[in-house]
Fold this sequence. Notes:
Largest sheet: 7 strands, antiparallel
Number of helices: 14
Helix content: 40-55%
Region (Disordered): 1-31, 53-88, 203-222
Order of helices and strands: HHHHHHHEEHEHEEHHEEHEEEHH
Oligomer: single chain
Distance between the termini: 29 Å
Shape: globular
Structural class: alpha+beta
Amino acid sequence: MKSPEQQINSNQEIDPVESVEEKQSTIPPQYKGMLSEIVEELWQNPIYIDEVKNKSETERRQNALEEIKRTEQDREAQKEERLKQQYSGLSDEQKVKFPDAQKDATKILTECIQGKKEINDLSNDLSPEESFVLQKLKTSYENFKKDNPDKPFSFDFAKNIDKSVYNNLVQRLSFSVLENKGKIDDQEKANAIREELGIPKQKIQGDSLTTPEQNSQQNYGGLKDKDFEEFKVKNGETDIGVFWYEYGNAAAKKLKESGKLEWGKERIYFDIPLENMEELRDLAFELAKSEKIPIAFKHLDVQKTHQIDLKPESETTRFVANFASIEDAKRFYQALQHREEYKRIKSDRNLDYHGYNIDGVAHYASGYREKREPLKRIIETAQKNSDNTYSYYSADGSKQITITEEQYSNFVNQFNTMPDPEETWKKTNL
């Protein structure tokens, strides 16, 4: 995501001398202050017998909508200019930290859109257009997940003004995150001094949206103890000759149905020998029950899977566990790492999971690793052409692919919204 300083603004000269007719608004009083999309929906002209009147009313409506849209574009351009000036006023140290603040701001908004945080938590700081765009994205997300529960959702801004509103909101929220983190850093430094002096530390105060989580366990209202210990198993083939046992407890099923657990988003891969899979399976059953963790995991069916996929040199995943949150994933691992059965497990290969290698066996890979790495490859290898398109080669180098500048920008935005596995794992506090 570009900093405000990098975003290009077109400076439009405004003639200070305007006629009375130019100043007169074409917008009816009842629609003033409303967003163009709402006015477009509300303002429906009746059909008149007089064609001249029909044409006149149609033109009046169109002129008013165009005026509202121009106002909206001017408003966002002014926001962008203010954000650019605000960025230029940051210290060098703050500018270094700003990209991380942007990532955190994007994560906050993404969680609001996904229903993990309430948009109302931000409502006091949101303008009407920001609330409107966030609610539209939340509705799009919910509709998409109804038909595609296992697929990642990517933003699709049908209107350019929505994209401008969202991008400016991310930038604006980034400054709030940066300021709040600065306050938290100061409080943590003060607590370190108190600890050296033997004085009790004080509770860290900050914005609830950007203060690190302090609770070690997620609040899953409505789930009962038995939901964490009752598992269902399925057996099936994903690729040709690759068979799996798939397990999920009732808690994971309920959270998946409500959209709070997304398959593939929060994962730990376990690179374990074939003979240890049932042992790790039993540990997963036990820890899900004792730690109250919603979990869905799968491991290879050694009896059915083709032998070539069972060899150490194969890149076939052997054991992977899915969680509703990074906090759950970390709680599971922290309980697991102390078990003697797990301590004895040693990996018999060195497969790259494009995530964070925790201990040589467990690999945390957030943000759809299958999508993150291809996006990273495209962004890093694509070359810009003279016509502003971008070209890159397929993963195997067999063919060249050309995409538009907008598609390339979308890939960059998608990649930037995906959290870095190592950074996410290390900064998550339990």
